[in-house]
Amino acid sequence: MSENIFLDYNATTPMPAEIIALMNTAQGRPLNASSVHSFGRQARSIVERARDQIAALINAPAAQIIFNSGATEGNNTVLKYFANERILASAIEHPAVLQAAPCTIILVHNNGTLDLSALETLLKSEKTALVSVMLANNETGIIQPIREAATLAHSHGALFHCDAVQAAGRIEIDMIDLGIDFLTLSAHKIGGPQGVGALALGICGVTPTLLHGGGQEKSARAGTENIAAIAGFGLAAERAKSTLPHFAATHQQLHAPLKAALTTAKNTTVIGEDTHKLANTTLFLNPDLSAQTLLMALDLEGIAVSNGAACSSGKIEPSHVLKAMGYSDTQASSAIRISTGWATTEKDIAYFIEKWQKITNRMKA
Ligand code: PLP
Fold first, then answer.
1. Are 252 and 279 in contact (CB under 8 A)?
2. Average pLDDT of the chain?
3. What is the DSSP string of 151-219?
4. CA of 209 to the centre of ligand 1 (A)
């Protein structure tokens, strides 16, 4: 009998019942935070509570959190604001950064971390307005040297943007301490709803703005706020903060049998294991086995995982992240990512290992 096992939390997350219930209390009600009547005041108080909850997750002043539609918008807001100046972005950024504005690429080491000396050389070569480096990579989970990169950017007069979508709720984030000027978040990666996110501003005093219109979000992001989604995002952030102290240990324990099985499998490489990375992400590859076939066979067993490769125009492209780390096209097309979250159990992982072993033995035969 096939199960229904979701091991793709870096793509999106299921919402806890508590968050759905909270959102249902706001959904469908005439809540516009710009209105002065009692409905409007209720809406305003929901928005401000959520702002506090999100600020607490990343140690930002609440007044510096700007709600938006998600991290694609957050990244575009920052990158497009600097589009007429020089922007440096790491080779492993999400397409929502790399395709938002022309960027000069900063190389990464073969271990998947930013090459800080390459960044320094680029900063010295020409005046730069913005440096963009993500906190943790969505495919590999590898954590980047943000404090060092931000310090370098500032010492050369550039501002620093960090896409913290995958790191939020998984590692401690102190935006001010890390020296981040602009930080992007997305609710649906931390147990909140899709279609809502935030851009957090540091102390640089610059407010990148993409959408102009009504004066919402202190004119930094026009458009009527999605009150139910913002409420859900706030609660998700509060829950993420409360589970943070145990997150790494919980997920290390969940992934331990998986890594043990993978490291003893023939021709199989587990990516980034010697590097500081998110405990909830295991990425592995076996160039002898097609990731697409494996993915579909796992899906038939009721297991949802992801391949590291990107799909564009119906064609599977090798992962740009793995290619930046020096893997070949074949290797970069054969990666499978398992990412766990709040509802994952040891039983889910045991079920995955059993089915993955059965499928790979069949594929090899
Ligand atoms: N940045 C990273 C690192 C992501 O993983 C994602 C989503 O996959 C995004 C940005 C885009 O986020 P959203 O779905 O909120 O637009």
1. yes
2. 95
3. HHHHHTT-EEEEE-TTTTTTS---HHHHT-SEEEEEGGGTTS-TT-EEEEE-SS--------SS-TGGG
4. 19
Among protein residues, the one whose CA lies closest to atom 16 of ligand 1: 72
Q: Give the C-alpha separation, 272 to 288, whole Å.
A: 20
Task: Tell me whether residue 204 is one of the annotated catalytic residues.
Answer: no
pTM flag (> 0.90): yes
pLDDT score of 311 more than 60: no
The CA distances from residue 169 to 16, 206, 236, 251, 333, in Å, are 15, 26, 9, 12, 29
The Cβ-side half-sphere exposure at 243, using a 13 Å CA radius, reads 18
Banded pLDDT at 1 (limits 50, 70, 90): very low
If you measure from the C-alpha of residue 221 to the centroid of ligand 1, how many angstroms do you get, rounded to a whole number? 19
Q: Please tell me the residue having the least CA distance from ligand 1 atom 8.
A: 11
Q: Hey, which residues does 132 pair with through a beta bridge? A: 89, 161
> Is it the case that residue 127 has pLDDT exceeding 70?
yes
Ligand 1 neighbours, Cβ below 6 Å, are: 70-72, 94, 96, 134, 138, 163, 165-166, 186, 197
Measure 186 CA to ligand 1 centroid, in angstroms.
7
Cβ atoms of residues 75 and 97 within 8 Å: yes
